[in-house]
Design goal:
Layout: E1 7-9, E2 18-21, H1 27-39, E3 44-47, H2 53-64, E4 69-72, E5 75-78, E6 92-95, H3 100-105, H4 107-112, E7 114-120, H5 131-139, E8 143-145, E9 154-159, E10 165-170, H6 175-184, E11 192-197, H7 204-216, E12 221-224, E13 227-230, E14 239-241, H8 250-259, E15 262-266, H9 279-282, E16 289-293, E17 296-300, E18 309-311, H10 319-326, E19 333-336, H11 348-358, E20 362-365, E21 370-373, E22 380-382, H12 388-398, E23 404-407, H13 419-427
Parallel strand pairs: 2-15, 3-14, 6-7, 10-11, 18-19, 22-23
Antiparallel strand pairs: 1-23, 3-5, 4-5, 7-9, 8-9, 11-13, 12-13, 15-17, 16-17, 19-21, 20-21
Helix pairs in contact: 1-2, 1-7, 5-6, 6-7, 8-12, 10-12
Enzyme class: transferase
Domain Enolpyruvate transferase: 15-422
Active site: 317 (proton acceptor)
C-alpha cells in the first residue's frame, strides 16, 4: 500500500467504471452498539461490526472499564460492565488514540464504575472539543479533574453510580456530546433529561441513530423540541447486526459520478438513520442516478457534474469526498453549514482548501464551509493530517488526475483498514 516515503499513488481510472463493492460495518453504529452492550444487563453479540483502529479503541476502552469482550462468529460477544474493579484505588488508563467517539462516549461509563480512570491519547485528541460534555457530566454528579483544559487528558473518579437528572448542554460543536449523555442515561439513577442550549446541533441523523439504537436495547426515549428524556431502565439486546458504513461508501459513490460509470454497493439498507444515506438524494442533483433494491445501491454517473450549492450541516462527514468530487464540476460550487468540521480529526475546512488548491483548484474557506471554483488539476502530494476522510478525498481526485501522492495513507485505517486495496480492486 505504501512506499518507502509513506505515500500511496492514487490510481487513475482508465474509463467509466463497472464495479461491485462491499464496504465494512458502520463506525458510528459499531461504537454505539459496543457502548450500549457495555451498559446492558446481559451479554450482547454484536455482528458484522467495523474492525478498524477506532472500533478497537472503543473495545479496549470499555474493556479497561470492566466490559470485556471476546471474538465470536462474525463479530464480538460483549459482556456488561462489572460491578467494581479489583483494585479500585489504582488509576486505569483509557486509551483514546485520536478517536473522538471514544473520548466522548466512555467518560460516563467510567463515572458509573469505581475508581479513577485517566483518559488520554494522541496529541491530536487534546485539541478536540469536549468541555461542554465534561461540564454536563459534572452537573449530573460526576467527579472529573481536567485542570481546566476542557480536553484530554482528564480523570474521571467513578463512585459506583451516577445520580443523573436534568442538565443543560451546548452540543453545537458536536452531536456526540448529546449522544454520550443519552446512551448512558438509562444507567443513571434518575435517568437523564437534556435541554439543549447554545447553537444548533450538527448531524441530526446521528442523534436519530442514537435514539433508534437506545430503543432497540429497550430504553424509553422522549423528545420534545430541544429537550430529550431517557428513563432509567435495564438495557438488553442479545444480538445486534451492524449495517454497512454508508459514509465510507461515499468515495465509491463518487467514483461512479467522477468517471461516468456504474458502481454497485452491496447491502445498502432499505431504511436507515445513517447520514450517508443522504447521498441517494444528492446523486440526481449531480446528474447521476441511484437505484436501490434488495441487493443494494446501484449508482451510475452521466459523465458531467454541474456546479451546486449544498448545505451539509447534517452530513458534514461527507464534506471531504464531496469537495473533491466538485473539483470536477462544470461550474463553481458552495458547501455551507459545516463550521463544526474545524473541530474534527483536523480542521477539515482549512485542510481541504489548502490541499485542493495546491493541486490547481481554487478552493476558499468561508465562515461555515467552502467555495469551490474548478480549474485544471495536476499531480502532487496531498497531505492528510491524520484524517481518514482526507485519504478518501485524495483517492477521488486520483481517478482523473495522474500523480496524486497521498501522504500517510495508513490513517484511513481509522474506519477502513483495507481501503486502498478495495479502491485499487474497484479499478480492476
Amino acid at each position: 500500500m505504501t512506499d518507502a516515503h509513506d505515500t500511496w499513488t492514487a490510481p487513475v481510472a482508465e474509463g467509466p467504471l463497472d464495479a461491485d463493492i462491499r464496504v465494512p460495518g458502520s463506525k458510528s453504529i459499531t461504537n454505539r452498539a459496543y457502548v450500549l452492550a457495555a451498559l446492558a444487563s446481559a451479554p450482547t453479540r454484536v455482528r458484522t461490526p467495523l474492525d478498524s483502529r477506532d472500533a478497537r479503541l472503543m473495545l479496549g476502552a470499555i474493556s479497561t472499564l470492566g466490559a470485556h469482550s471476546q471474538g465470536s462468529i462474525g463479530g464480538y460477544l460483549v459482556h456488561p460492565l462489572g460491578h467494581g474493579r479489583v483494585h479500585p484505588d489504582e488509576t486505569v488508563r483509557v486509551e483514546l488514540g485520536n478517536a473522538g467517539t471514544v473520548a466522548r462516549f466512555t467518560p460516563a461509563l467510567a463515572a458509573l464504575g469505581t475508581g479513577p480512570a485517566l483518559f488520554d491519547g494522541d496529541e491530536a485528541i487534546r485539541r478536540r472539543p469536549i468541555g461542554p460534555l465534561l461540564k454536563a457530566l459534572r452537573g449530573l454528579g460526576a467527579r472529573i479533574e481536567d485542570d481546566r483544559r476542557e480536553a484530554p487528558p482528564f480523570t474521571v473518579h467513578g463512585e459506583g453510580g451516577l445520580r443523573g437528572g436534568k442538565v443543560d448542554l451546548d452540543s453545537s460543536a458536536s452531536s456526540q456530546f448529546l449522544s454520550a449523555l443519552l446512551l448512558a442515561g438509562p444507567s443513571f439513577q434518575q435517568g437523564v433529561t437534556v435541554r439543549l442550549v447554545g447553537g444548533t446541533v450538527p448531524s441530526e441523523p446521528h442523534i436519530a441513530m442514537t435514539v433508534e439504537m437506545l430503543r432497540r436495547f429497550g430504553a424509553t426515549v422522549d423528545r420534545e423540541g430541544t429537550e430529550f428524556h431517557v428513563a432509567p431502565t435495564r438495557l438488553s439486546c442479545p444480538e445486534y447486526i451492524v449495517e454497512p458504513d454508508l459514509s465510507t461508501a461515499a468515495p465509491f459513490v463518487a467514483a461512479a459520478v467522477v468517471t461516468g460509470g456504474t458502481v454497485r454497493i452491496a447491502g445498502w439498507p432499505q431504511q436507515t438513520t445513517q447520514p450517508g444515506d443522504w447521498l441517494r438524494s444528492l446523486l440526481p442533483v449531480l446528474g447521476a442516478t441511484a437505484e436501490l433494491d434488495a441487493a443494494g445501491l446501484t449508482v451510475t454517473g452521466s459523465g458531467t457534474i454541474p456546479g451546486v450549492e449544498l448545505d451539509l450541516h447534517d452530513v458534514g462527514e461527507l464534506t471531504p469526498v464531496i469537495a473533491a468530487l466538485l473539483c470536477f464540476a462544470e461550474g463553481p460550487s458552495i458547501i455551507s453549514g459545516v463550521a463544526h468540521l474545524r473541530g474534527h480529526e483536523t480542521d477539515r475546512l482549512t485542510a481541504l482548501a489548502t490541499e485542493l488548491s495546491s493541486l490547481g483548484a481554487d478552493v476558499r474557506e468561508t465562515e461555515d464551509g467552502l467555495r469551490i471554483t474548478p480549474a485544471p488539476l495536476h499531480g502532487g502530494k496531498f497531505r492528510t493530517y491524520d484524517d481518514h476522510r482526507l485519504v478518501m478525498a485524495a483517492a477521488v481526485l486520483g481517478l482523473r488526475v495522474e500523480g496524486i501522492e497521498v501522504e500517510n495513507p495508513e490513517t484511513v485505517g481509522k474506519t477502513y483498514p483495507g481501503f486502498a486495496e478495495a479502491w485499487t480492486s474497484m479499478l480492476g
